[in-house]
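Weekly puzzle thread! Below is a chain. First person to post its structure in token form gets bragging rights.
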Amino acid sequence: KAEPAKVEQVKAEPAKVENKAAAGGNYFVQIGVFSDPDKVKQMQEKLSEKGLKSSDELIDTAKGKKTRLRVGPFEAKKDAESAMEKIKSLGLTGVVVSVN
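Winning reply:
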């Protein structure tokens, strides 16, 4: 009887994660992964001037710690694609990614 209870708890946890993702939006525009934190800050300033909310995240890679830069989240893919046009106007590139 203890095993089915564990299975029920495991099922409940992913549902909570999905709800958190849905509340904040499922789409981001990933600008890139960078080793220079100063470059990331410069790009964030440019993005902010265009009214784009960005976030950075320190991640471990095979080549050491890097900073991932994303814009978003957006609830709809079309909103992320619209932001991508603004990003291109700054001379930056990116790709629309989904957290699902």
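Puzzle host: Confirmed. Bonus trivia for everyone else. The two ends are 32 Å apart (CA to CA).
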